Amino acid sequence: MHMDPFDDPRLTAMGLLVEVATGLTVKAHQSFTAVGLSDVDFETLIRLARSPRQRLRMSDLAAQTSLSTSGITRVVDRLEREGLVMREACSTDRRASYAVLTEAGAERLKAVMPQHLNDIETYFTGLLTPQQLSDFLDALRIIRDVVRPCATVGVERASSEQCEGEKVS
């Protein structure tokens, strides 16, 4: 018996994933724009906020956000003009510079967090049991590590790396 190629469950899985991701992005977008952030602004700022010392090498930030290096440069330039991030040179490697979350950037994120977390709870995590959520997160990490192996690049380095002249906290 010949199976209809359009009834393949792999297409259903992919379609559902895209529909869910798109729907969640639309819900989040409304919260971000209310505090003057674009989706990419939020993604950039939250990755910095959740990184050790609230900073990442520009190249690592580009890899984590799936933007090109020139794309992340433009985003960081704009966020820097707004005072939400600053650049920091690494004195041990002239080629490296860091994007660092500023206090103003942290405050902007804090302004959107209550609504964003409420949206996540309402439209995503709150719909799943704790076990379903745990299993789902495990499955997402397996897939992410294959399709976006650079999604966490720089996190280990940033937590152990120190540029010359910096104090250890």
UniProtKB/TrEMBL annotation:
One of its GO terms (biological process) is response to stress. Residues 10-145 form the HTH marR-type domain. InterPro entries: HTH_MarR-typ, MarR/SlyA-like, WH-like_DNA-bd_sf, WH_DNA-bd_sf. Gene3D superfamilies: Winged helix-like DNA-binding domain superfamily/Winged helix DNA-binding domain (1.10.10.10). Transmembrane segments: none annotated. SMART domains: HTH_MARR (SM00347). GO terms for molecular function: DNA-binding transcription factor activity. This is Transcriptional regulator. It comes from Planotetraspora thailandica.
